[in-house]
Amino acid sequence: MDKEAIIQVSSVSKYYGANRAVEKVSFKVNEGEIFGIIGQHGAGKTTLLEMLMGIRMPEQGSIQIYGQDVVLDAERLKEDIGIHLQSTSLVDKMNVREAMELFQGFYKRKNDLDLIIEQFGLSPYSNKLVKRLSGGWRQRTALAIALVNDPKIIFLDEPTTGLDSQAKRDYWSLLALLKQQGKTIVVASHDMEEIQRYCSRVCVMRKGELMACANPTTLIAQLPGGGMTMEAVYMHHAVEMKGRVSV
């Protein structure tokens, strides 16, 4: 039986002048799953994530999280949401613990920072400046910051871009641990191997439209000509195919 849908996106659109960033997109995210969003640069992935997080307001449609509107109930919902920082420039001159303490101050709900630091293997780096960390450890720190309020839902935008293979595996091991803890994770990524291996379901965006949404196995099986990978799904839906579906 499917778990409860905790995010409901209904006919959401967002425009920047004449640019259709997101056009009448509908889908749901179930509790406890890793939900992937894929598409080319400019497909609307980041704008969609920003609307889910309540950072941007849709022109049309609605987004509900736990039955609450992300715009009208933004203050209440922020306690349930964790955001992986795309840029660490705000905390570069802080050490790891200071950065976590800073962001924890924005929330009423507090997670155990010592526990996060231990679970993420950050103990040897807790007093080190964020800007001095390698790419992999900076991404771990960004994810740790996203957990300071013990969120139920975590939003990630291209979190492993620029990391080497080992750092990517380490990062996804952390996400798998969070999934086991019952967290719901929504991630935009260009790495189709990651998407295929780790995501429960995936939505494919093309020029602001939702082209397909299902689990990776189903998306692959539905390909004409018998494609075998999410890379083939990406090429078929995100690059070539036209149309829209709502799920």
Give the beta-strand count.
Answer: 10
Task: Report on the biggest sheet.
Answer: 6 strands, mixed
What string gives the helices and strands in order?
Answer: EEEHEEHEHHHEHEHEEHH
The structural domain count equals 1
pLDDT averaged residue by residue: 91
Helix content: 25-40%
Shape annotation? globular
Beta percentage is: 25-35%
Number of helices: 9
CATH topology annotation: Rossmann fold
Kindly name the structural category: alpha/beta
Distance between the termini: 17 Å
Describe this protein's structure.
This protein is an alpha/beta fold and 247 residues long. Strands 6-7-8-3-9-10 form a 6-stranded mixed sheet, sandwiched between helices. Strands 2-1-4-5 form a 4-stranded antiparallel sheet, with helices on one face. The longest helix is centred in the last third of the chain and has 16 residues, at 165-180. The chain has one domain (5-240): 3-Layer(aba) Sandwich (Rossmann fold), CATH 3.40.50.300. A hairpin with a 2-residue loop joins β4 (60-65) and β5 (68-69). α3 runs parallel beside α5 (135-146) and α5 packs parallel to α6. The model is unreliable at 241-247 (pLDDT under 50). The chain contains 9 helices and 10 strands. It has helices spanning 45-52, 74-77, 96-104, 113-119, 135-146, 165-180, 192-198, 216-221, 230-240; strands spanning 5-16, 19-30, 34-38, 60-65, 68-69, 81-83, 153-157, 184-188, 201-206, 209-214.
